[in-house]
Fold:
Amino acid sequence: MKYVAFLRGINVGGKNKVKMETLREVCDALGFENVKTYINSGNVIFETAKTNDKKLAERLEKAIEKEFALNIKVMIRAISEIESIVKNNPFAGQFENDKDLHVFFLDEELPQEKREMLLSNNNANEMFAVQNREIFCLLRVSVLDSLLMGRDYIGKKLKVSATARNWRTVNKVLEF
Structure:
């Protein structure tokens, strides 16, 4: 079974430094096969026996803590889930630049009241859609000025762990 691990908050602004070569070695030591990384922001593509993605994430989080002395949250998705995300993009055709669309991979599905709270923030500059354990965010403003990234709305208001990737990265991990 092929999976993608998205690590939250590594190699950003000189914090939580993780070398991709060492990260691949950590994944190899966990028994993951055909381990590859994409760019320096913590995207790991690997194969392993089909299992619960939460258990995989916990194993990888513990291994990262042991190897790097960092408490890093990991979101795991089967490659079939990434294919579904790309296929079912609610903002298809509504953006010109792959950096205008972001997908937030959540640790858990948002309950209805939190979905409604998020969606009530839709406006001309920032539009949101929720599908399964993902939030799609189409930005017409700078990432730093955005509700989700600039003000960490997901962590502070929705109280859910998440990590974001731009649309280009989401599509690129399918190529591995």
User: Anything to note?
Assistant: Residues 46 and 143 are 29 Å apart (CA to CA). The longest helix spans residues 53-68. The first strand starts at residue 2 and ends at 7.
